[in-house]
Amino acid sequence: LYRQGELQAVLEKGERLSGLYPDQAFLFSLMGSAHAGLRQWDGAIARFSRAVQLRPDIAEGHVNLGKALSEASRRKEAIACFQTALKINPDHGDAHYSLGVALHHEGRLTEALPHLGAAVEREPNNPQLRNRLGAALCDAGRPAEAVAQFRRALEIKPGVIGTLIHLSIAYEALGRLPEELEVLGELLKIDPGLADVRGRQL
Hints:
Elements: H1 7-20, H2 25-37, H3 41-54, H4 59-71, H5 75-88, H6 93-105, H7 109-122, H8 127-139, H9 143-156, H10 161-174, H11 177-190
């Protein structure tokens, strides 16, 4: 049912089964994922919390709970969950990425960058990870390093508007006007409606 996207049905069946199998962490984790798919964050937090309570030794459970807490704007609690996941499994790429994102949102860039970098090391061909690392580098005042990340992300997946906008911002920070205008021109080719992108008339 979950794979078919019938998330409400998953929850209804899960409620029945949880009465029969109250100690099955997987069941509560599945219900948490269904709540998350429906963007019911309180429900997701409750279910993932129960799963973690039953199986505190599984890193993925702490990551799932942390993501739900992040979505509910409970970022400090989410950070603690991701940190716990990494204590259990220091090589957990998603925990590194999620922790890096949460720390970035909190403005804790010095702490965020190593975790975002670790996520990229584990999945070097993931453009989303490189784009996020680049954005953090830009915010940390390291636009030259950011450019390298954005350009690699665009090599992997060309034409992504968000990445192109980030790249143009990095070029602007470096004072590299020709490259900035070239990127803005690319954006205009993709979508003429972006003529005013970033306040630059193309």
